[in-house]
Design a protein that fits this description.
- It is built from four helices and two strands, in the order αβαβαα.
- By secondary structure, it is mainly alpha-helical.
- The longest helix has 17 residues, at about 1-20.
């Protein structure tokens, strides 16, 4: 279970970064239970999260006092099908909010990370 969570979180992080986003926490101190993503300039985080939920049925969190979005990585979220759904929803929602997310590169990096042994 611990290995699955670590692998899934690492794969999601790689997918997010390959999509053109940056992560809030330095790699050496990240937790596998939550991924904090910096909000791209020009994107309203509240509108992004609302679009993800409304159009894709994916709910992610904001943060208290920080301009980031957070994606939980515990339990059922750490299943490949849920990771794919979440990353696709994030990337497509960002595109619709005006950020040129590279959804294809993100999904490819996610798949590579999930299949790495």
């Amino acid at each position: 279970r611990f290995e699955r969570h670590a692998r899934c979180s690492s794969a999601l992080q790689a997918g997010i970064e390959a999509s053109g986003l940056s992560l809030f926490v330095d790699r050496d101190v990240r937790l596998p239970s939550v991924v904090a993503v910096n909000r791209p300039d020009g994107v309203d985080a509240t509108a992004l999260r609302a679009r993800m939920e409304r159009e894709f049925g994916v709910e992610i969190a904001g943060a208290f006092g920080l301009d980031i979005v957070r994606i939980g990585q515990m339990g059922e979220q750490c299943r490949p099908e849920n990771l794919h759904r979440t990353l696709l929803a994030l990337g497509e929602s960002l595109r619709r909010e005006g950020f040129p997310a590279d959804v294809e590169a993100g999904m490819s990096a996610l798949n590579t990370g999930l299949t790495a042994s």
